[in-house]
Design brief:
By secondary structure, the protein is of the alpha+beta class. It has 2 domains: about 140 residues; about 220 residues, L,D-transpeptidase catalytic domain-like (Beta Barrel), CATH 2.40.440.10. Helices cover about 15% and strands about 35% of the residues. It is built from 6 helices and 24 strands. An 8-stranded mixed β-sheet has the order 9-8-7-18-13-14-15-17, covered by helices on one side. Strands 1, 2, 3, 4, 5 and 6 form a 6-stranded antiparallel β-sheet that branches. A hairpin with a 6-residue loop joins strand 20 and strand 21. The protein starts with a helix and ends in a 31-residue tail after the last strand. About 10% of the residues have low confidence.
């Protein structure tokens, strides 16, 4: 009897597997236009529908239904649906569309006091209720689904939950391809991956240094630390009360402070995917809150972040349009009578470099001259914020002279091996 039961169990299992493989055998990936097949995995369904030329039948209706009626699609009760992303290329079999998607869901929210956590009072987080001195916490999970629906008739999708991954069981890293203006977030413990468009630093074409570079520094093995992630930054006003996620260069964030971070775009809700900032990385609100929750509510105290001009090993793209016709660039300075070579930010007390919009030389010409290493084989890492003194010398925000690669130097021109100084925040 036991042998018969075992055989029946095996037969049922094989039938299920056979049905699955037969179903996939008769399915074929949707034909994508141009290079769009490389602009799917890791991209929001809503972004693909809006910005890609390839049409996936009824995708708009499906996305709307998933957002408005999440209880019909997801296991967890939704406090906030951070997004629904393609995990694999979608398939079509006759009149049936099959989507393989990952959804990030905040499904529980609670509060703890600062005293109970042992967090210092000077840590500024938007979840803080100053009077109550409490911090907001969330439980976040990724639900991996297979969604099948018909291209005709009533929209009645069939949902299969393949896997659930708790944020606490992940270890994300962030890589930024500056010239492509894309942010790639990947989990080292699974194949979760997400792609976002970004606006990056303006272009310096031999204005202050003897090369072509961006105002966004190249960071290697740096960090996004949860204690340096601000949920609702209101000053300066251009942060609009939305998250600011600072990049730090040391495991101790107080010693690795930089003025660079991820924050909201400043284009009235329409991100300019171009070279636009004084160094910071600009994101859309939905992507910024997504990143914030991963940094803030994941298990690691900090996650790894790297910025470089090119990421040749990962060509995943995003269909959001890039602005290549013009770009922001450092302005050629004229020596003023009072020796001022920078302007004051009208929103704050920060001293920022002057920039202007231009279109010459063309970006491809400039890209060829931007290197991830300098002539000495060194990465021009770190703190790229400086100002001119009254004598025209370049100085960092602590007043120290810097060399042509942006490193602080002593009076004899030797590099100073010290911790990065604190500075006014770039935008």
């Amino acid at each position: 009897m036991k042998v018969l039961t075992k055989l029946l169990t095996m037969a049922v299992g094989l039938t299920i597997l056979n049905t699955f493989f037969v179903q996939r055998a008769f399915s074929a990936p949707i034909e994508f236009k141009g290079e769009e097949a490389n602009q799917v995995i890791g991209v929001r369904l809503s972004d693909f529908r809006k910005y890609a030329e390839t049409d996936i039948p009824r995708l708009k209706d499906l996305v709307y239904s998933m957002k408005m009626q999440p209880e019909n699609f997801f296991k967890n009760q939704v406090v906030e649906l951070h997004g629904i992303f393609f995990r694999e290329l979608p398939e079509i079999n006759g009149d049936t569309i099959t989507l393989y998607v990952d959804a990030m869901i905040a499904h529980n929210e609670y509060f703890k006091s600062r005293e109970a956590l042992g967090w210092p009072s000077h840590v500024h987080l938007s979840e803080v209720e100053d009077k109550e001195k409490t911090l907001r916490f969330r439980d976040v999970a990724f639900e991996r689904l297979i969604v099948r629906y018909k291209t005709t008739g009533a929209l009645e999708p069939k949902i299969e939950l393949v896997q659930e991954i708790d944020l606490k069981d992940t270890e994300f890293e962030v890589n930024v391809a500056l010239l492509d203006r894309r942010v790639i977030m990947t989990d080292k413990k699974s194949d979760l991956r997400f792609i976002f468009p970004t606006g990056v630093g303006s272009v310096d074409n031999h204005t202050e240094f003897n090369d072509v570079r961006l105002l966004t520094p190249i960071y290697k093995d740096s960090f996004l630390d949860k204690k340096r992630a601000i949920f609702a930054r209101e000053k300066p006003s251009y942060f609009e009360g939305k998250p600011f996620i600072r990049i730090t260069t040391k495991e101790d964030p107080s010693k690795g402070h930089t003025a660079i971070g991820f924050h909201i775009d400043q284009s009235n809700g329409s991100l300019i995917r171009g070279f636009v900032s004084h160094g910071c990385l600009r994101l859309r609100a939905s992507d910024l809150y997504f990143m914030y929750d991963i940094v803030r509510f994941g298990t690691p105290q900090r996650i790894s972040v790297n910025t470089r001009y090119r990421i040749k090993s990962d060509l995943a793209e995003h269909p959001y349009p890039k602005k290549n016709s013009s770009y922001s660039r450092l302005k050629k300075y004229k020596k003023l009578k009072n020796g001022v070579y920078y302007r004051r930010c009208k929103f704050c007390r920060a001293k920022l470099q002057k920039t202007e919009w231009g279109s010459s030389p063309k970006l491809p010409v400039l890209f060829e001259q931007m290197l991830d290493t300098n002539d000495n084989g060194e990465r021009p890492d770190g703190f790229y914020l400086w100002r001119r003194d009254s004598e025209g010398n370049r100085r960092d925000m602590q007043g120290r002279k810097v060399d042509k690669y942006g490193f602080p130097i002593d009076e004899k021109g030797r590099r100073i091996q010290e911790e990065d100084p604190e500075a006014d925040d770039s935008n």
